[in-house]
Task: inverse folding
């Protein structure tokens, strides 16, 4: 039996032993094991998805800071479309709010609109993240918009090119009934839901935000 010779120590003092050469039989066995091993599982990733939800398409932004310490978002995303419904402009928010918007689109928008006007094609966005006070009132508390918790929607765009405008169609016929039902659905999903009947500031859009409410009861008006 031959003697296994050791290589001299490396510069850092670690002793390395000379490894015996693999025999042809060993190589064949190794090849069979590698071929029979199951492939590593792959996690399905839809291009453009955010918040781990294929229905939410957009861009991951990360941390957003502002001059006021009360403003900012830890893990922000820019939402571009929700369940195939395109936003007129990307909306900056956190994933919790983005998920709530997706729930509203699924349960409070698409079923309510149905095939009216060919169905929903997009949303006219009036606002999302902005470091400001509530209703822009000086000295007031920071708005949920300043925390990435809110989105404002001015109109629903339909596939036939028409729109359901909060300002122009609220309370008017079929369009008004669809808008009111969509607003009411938001009350079941968001912490705060405001519309034309809440105050003059919201006469032209829906305001949805995910601010936590006492006893889990949201504010709807």
Result:
């Amino acid at each position: 039996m031959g003697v296994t010779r050791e290589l001299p120590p490396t510069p850092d003092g670690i002793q390395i032993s000379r490894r015996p050469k693999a025999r042809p039989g060993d190589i064949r066995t190794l090849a069979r094991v590698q071929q029979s091993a199951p492939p590593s599982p792959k996690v399905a990733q839809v291009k453009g998805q955010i918040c781990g939800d294929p229905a939410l398409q957009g861009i991951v932004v990360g941390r957003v800071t502002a001059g006021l310490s009360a403003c900012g978002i830890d893990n922000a995303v820019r939402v571009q479309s929700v369940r195939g419904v395109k936003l007129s402009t990307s909306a900056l928010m956190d994933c919790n709010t983005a998920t709530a918007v997706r729930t509203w689109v699924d349960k409070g928008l698409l079923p309510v609109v149905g095939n009216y006007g060919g169905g929903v094609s997009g949303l006219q966005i009036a606002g999302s993240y902005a470091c400001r006070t509530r209703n822009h009132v000086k000295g007031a508390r920071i708005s949920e918009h300043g925390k990435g918790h809110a989105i404002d929607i001015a109109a629903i765009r339909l596939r036939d090119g028409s729109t359901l405008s909060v300002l122009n169609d609220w309370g008017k016929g079929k369009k008004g009934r669809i808008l009111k039902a969509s607003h009411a659905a938001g009350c079941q999903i968001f912490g705060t839901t405001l519309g034309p009947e809440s105050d003059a500031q919201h006469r032209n859009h829906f305001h949805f935000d995910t601010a936590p409410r006492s006893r889990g009861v949201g504010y709807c008006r």
Observations:
- DSSP finds four helices and ten strands in the chain.
- The first strand starts at residue 49 and ends at 50.
- Strands lie at 49-50, 53-64, 73-82, 85-94, 120-127, 150-158, 163-165, 192-194, 206-209, 219-220.
